[in-house]
Amino acid sequence: MPLIEFTDKGLFCRAGNFYIDPWKPVNYAIITHAHSDHAKWGSKNYLCHTLTKPLLQARLGNNHYETMEWNETKTINGVKVSLHPAGHIIGSSQVRVECNNEVWVASGDYKVANDGISGAFEPVKCNAFITESTFGLPIYCWKHQEAVFENMRNWILANKALNKTSIIIAYSLGKAQRVLKALEDFDETIFMHGATWNMHQAIINAGISLPKIKAERVMPETSKEKLKESIVIAPPGAEGSSWLKKFSPYAIGVCSGWMQVRGNVRRKNVDGAFVLSDHADWTGLLQAIKATKAEKVYVTHGYQAVFSRYLNEKGIWSAEVKTEYGEEEEEKENAAGLAEESGKMD
Q1: pLDDT digits over 284-316, tens only?
Q2: Measuring CA to CA, which of 4, 87, 121, 226 is 20 to 30 A from 281?
Q3: CB–CB of 226/214 below 8 Å?
Q4: Strand partners, 173
Q5: Chain centre distance of CA 25
Q6: φ, ψ for residue 75 (rounded to 5)?
Q7: What is the SS3 assignment for 118-155?
Q8: What H or E segment, with its residue span, contains residue 177?
Q9: 39 within domain boundaries
Q10: What is the residue range of 58's domain?
Q11: What percent of the chain has pLDDT above 70?
Q12: Which tens digits make up the pLDDT trace of 2-14?
C-alpha cells in the first residue's frame, strides 16, 4: 500500500492517520498553504507552517491550529513529518512524510524562482513526489521577475502621463504582495480593494515583513480626486464590475501566468498583461522533479495528462492523479468579496 493514498477526501497517509490538503472535513489536516482550494474549512485539527497560521485564521476563522517551522520534524502515529519551503506564497510548504525508510513529498503548489517574499523553494529528496502541473506545457516559460516588474512600472508611468488610474488585478494572497514589491520605490499611497486590504492587514498584524509602502483601503467616501492617476490593487472579480466606476479614466493590468498566451490577453480585453505567476513554469517543474531524485512522480492539477506522459517518455515513472485543486475556488472567493464591496460602493 502506498504511503500516501489518493482518496475522495484528499491525500491520505493511512499509517499516520492524517490528510494533506483535504477538500472535505477530516480529523487531522496538514495544510501546505492558505489558498482556498488547498485549505478548506471544517476539519477538527490543522497543522501548518508558522507563517500560514494567521492566513488560515483570516480565511477559516478560529480552529485548532498547530504550527511547525520549516525543517522541523514531528512524529504523528509513528510517521515522521516535516515541512519545507515551496516558494508559492507566504508560508507555503511541501510536506515530507517518512515511514519504514520510505519518503514521500506532497509539494502542494510551488515555484522554484525566489520572489523575495515567499521563501526559496527547497528540493527534498524522496522516493515519490506529488507535483502540480498548472503550467505543465513548454509554452509557459517565465521571464525574470524584475523584468516583469520593470514593465509594470513603465506601464503605470505611461498611464499617469495620460491622466489615468492604474488598476492592477492580482490575487489578494500571493500576487498582491509581489506587486507591492514591484511598487516599493513609488513614493505614493497604494490603494487597495477591500479583499486585498483585509489580507494585507492580516499579514501586517502577524508581523510578517512586507515591502515598505503606504497603503490605503478604497472606501465609499474616498474622493474621486484622491484616486486620480493613483495605483489600485484589486482581485480578479473586479474586472468588468461597477466597482470600477469610481476610478474613471483608468487602465487595467492583469497579473497572471495565463497572460503568456496572447489569445488570453485578447479575450480579456485588458490594457496591460503581466506574466507573473506563483506557480512553476515548464522548466521549473522539470527542475524541481529532477532535484528530488524521485523514483515515482504523481502529477495533479493542471496539464497533468500531458505532463505525466512527457515524464514517462523521458524515463521517469509517472501517473496522473485527479484532485480538486486549482484556481477556480480562489476566483469564486474573490468574486464573492467583490460583490460585497460593490454593494458598499454603489
Answers
A1: 999 999 999 999 999 999 999 999 999 999 999
A2: 4
A3: no
A4: none
A5: 22
A6: -100, 125
A7: CCCCCCCCCCEEEEEECCCCCCCCCCCHHHHHHHHHHH
A8: helix 175-182
A9: yes
A10: 5-139+279-326
A11: 93
A12: 999 999 999 999 9
